[in-house]
């Protein structure tokens, strides 16, 4: 793993996060520290503020909430949208990705696309791909990224069962290499790895 | 982030935006076609007398260039917001200032540059004296770059809105005015046999100022637009 992280292994630390939307308090007093090798799932019903919390933690929401977020390592954020351009091929989408990670070699990109089962689709314009395949192009970034901190918003959505299996293998690999993962998911996470749950209603991490 | 990595990233962004633009040639042709159509309207409205047209030509050409730039500015960040690329861009470790500059540069290369290069043709349609054509092309090349930068601010501020089209016009047209004044001034000066240089120098100064300031405003606008 590159891109550091502090000596105590904390990748992301947040304290006293509260958010109000439309006069209703979504959550309050959320504090968490994500360390190397930790897998945290944010839990809550629809509209509980899972995505909002993830966007605050990622640094996309800067205003309108109380609390403090500190990044101590490079992060990879995958949101609801795939950030895949229909006019570009999957290979171009990854090679010229706007997230500005390191330069990836053609071989690395091909390997990542093969890992998400898009072998043979590298040079097809992305508008010819299905929604699920767009998700897969986006997930290929998990195989390229060298960021230790992963924030994943519903990574299993629109992915078939084999794909979910492969994704879990990749998550496990990342955690074992000392990465940290924070994710939201409505599907039960069946990883053979200790899972911490952050309950938005109570604000407790267990 | 090292400076070299930032430069590499911006060149990659520029290439991406140019490829995206070139893969949709219709969008490249539309502003030029719009320009040609509107220029063709003026003889119908003002009467076809060559003298009148030639006298109004500097103003007409500049206003049409401005409107054609306005039409395309709206779309600079829109598709990136819709597919989620914009939030990824904001999270990139590179300074957003330079990324915004790369987006605007791509926009200018695909609109203003083409317009500047095609402008002699439109000038001839209106019977502008050939002697004023170099000043027209030069002022358009400089001026449209300023317009693209200012338009980028409007685009960044309105990209999160469903119907930002009208609002962006109201927001940025006032800032287009100095460019219009000095741009058409340059052509007018050349038409009257005076040097266009001072006007072009002011346009150049406007360009320097907007290169320095506009990307900051664009970056701030984008952060606000994505933060919803």
Give an overview in words.
The complex is a heterodimer of chains A (206) and B (228). By secondary structure, chain A is an alpha/beta fold. Chain A folds into 2 domains: 10-74 and 148-205, Rossmann fold; 90-139. In chain A, 26% of the residues lie in helices and 28% in strands. Chain A contains 6 helices and 9 strands. In chain A, the strands form 2 sheets. Chain A has a 6-stranded mixed beta sheet, with helices on both faces. In chain A, strands 2-1-4 form a 3-stranded antiparallel beta sheet, with helices on one face. In chain A, strand 6 (149-153), helix 6 and strand 7 (180-184) form a beta-alpha-beta unit. Chain A is globular and about 50 Å long. Chain A starts with 9 loop residues before the first strand and ends with a strand. The model of chain A is unreliable at 1-5 (pLDDT under 50). Chain B has 228 residues and is mainly α. Chain B has one domain. In chain B, 83% of the residues lie in helices and 0% in strands. Chain B is built from 10 helices and no strands. Chain B has helices spanning 3-22, 25-46, 50-73, 78-82, 85-91, 96-110, 112-125, 133-158, 165-191, 197-226. The longest helix of chain B is centred in the C-terminal third of the chain and has 30 residues, at 197-226. Chain B is elongated. The model of chain B has no long low-confidence stretch (mean pLDDT 92). The chains are: A alpha/beta (206), B mainly alpha (228). The interface between A and B is medium-sized, with 28 and 29 residues.
